């Protein structure tokens, strides 16, 4: 790993190390834990005050934009409430960033408004016919919005076809219970190396995932054919159609992995998004059978 990459990943994991140190202090008793938490609070307040002065001294809009665009600096500005972009702009930009992924699955999202800590979104597109695809899209949008605007209280999604408000917590319950297992994001920088038309397998967490690149888009699916339940390892990609090496079923990877021709079912989509500048996948904690 290059020195710059190591330094970047080192700071991105600082929060986890701080939490681990606080937890270690707790083993020495409540007094030690209280002192450790007070120390962290004092340091955070000190750097917050310094950052506030820095941003107040910046009179160049381009420089303020550059600072806010940096993942590490931008996250600290958010923590201290001094980010130069308001919540509406940040959410709008987050949706612009995730929109290409939604489009790759035939979906789209529109910001309806933000009021009283609630972000209201409208989902639309052909992906609505595939429940597993809809869940992955909701997961991707939820993550993008909450990363850009951690101060929001909740997100509500409105299905454009029926125009009824559905709390995202309710929608996301399908990810966290029943057929949909809990989901975790994993950084997979190797995805950047995929060439157009290339198919490759990845072990993400303990889950086997098949990824491919169609044009500029990197698309990923659980490595299981819904037709024969076998691994898709060795699958070939022709245009946007992925062919199972075992049963020869064909699936359109650009349209949520839907079966084409006489092939039925859907491959199970796996969200692929740039998180903190690194392509990442959201995979379930346990494998789930592909959609029939």
UniProtKB/TrEMBL annotation:
Matches recorded under PROSITE patterns: RIESKE (PS51296)
Domain of life: Bacteria
InterPro entries: FSCA_dom_sf, NIF_FeS_clus_asmbl_NifU_C, Rieske_2Fe-2S, Rieske_2Fe-2S_sf
Pfam families per UniProt: NifU, Rieske
Signal peptide bounds: none
Keyword Iron: yes
Rieske domain sequence ranges: 185-281
Function: May be involved in the formation or repair of [Fe-S] clusters present in iron-sulfur proteins.
Name of the protein this chain belongs to: NifU family protein
Native source species: Candidatus Mycolicibacterium alkanivorans
Lineage: Bacteria, Bacillati, Actinomycetota, Actinomycetes, Mycobacteriales
């Amino acid at each position: 790993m290059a020195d710059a990459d190591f330094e970047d990943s080192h700071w991105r994991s600082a929060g986890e190390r701080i939490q681990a140190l606080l937890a270690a202090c707790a083993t020495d008793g409540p007094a030690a834990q209280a002192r450790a938490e007070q120390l962290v609070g004092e340091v955070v307040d000190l750097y917050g005050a310094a950052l506030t002065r820095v941003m107040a001294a910046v009179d160049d809009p381009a420089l303020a934009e550059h600072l806010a665009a940096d993942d590490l600096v931008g996250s600290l500005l958010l923590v201290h409430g001094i980010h130069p972009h308001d919540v509406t702009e940040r959410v709008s930009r987050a949706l612009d960033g995730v929109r290409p992924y939604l489009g790759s699955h035939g979906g789209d999202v529109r910001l309806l408004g933000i009021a009283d800590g609630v972000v209201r979104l409208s989902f639309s597109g052909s992906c609505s016919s595939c429940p597993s695809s809809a869940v992955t899209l909701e997961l991707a949008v939820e993550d993008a919005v909450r990363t850009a605007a951690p101060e929001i209280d909740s997100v509500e999604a409105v299905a454009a076809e029926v125009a009824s408000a559905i709390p995202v917590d309710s929608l996301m319950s399908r990810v966290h219970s029943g057929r949909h297992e809990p989901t975790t994001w994993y950084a997979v920088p190797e995805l950047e190396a995929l060439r157009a038309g290339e198919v490759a397998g990845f072990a993400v967490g303990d889950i086997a995932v098949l990824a491919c690149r169609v044009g500029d888009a990197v698309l990923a699916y659980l490595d299981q054919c819904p037709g024969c339940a076998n691994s898709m390892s060795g699958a070939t990609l022709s245009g946007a159609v992925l062919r199972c090496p075992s049963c020869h079923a064909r699936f359109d990877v650009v349209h949520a992995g839907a079966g084409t021709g006489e092939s039925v079912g859907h491959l199970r989509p796996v969200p692929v998004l740039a998180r903190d500048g690194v392509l990442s996948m959201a995979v379930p904690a346990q494998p789930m059978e592909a959609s029939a």
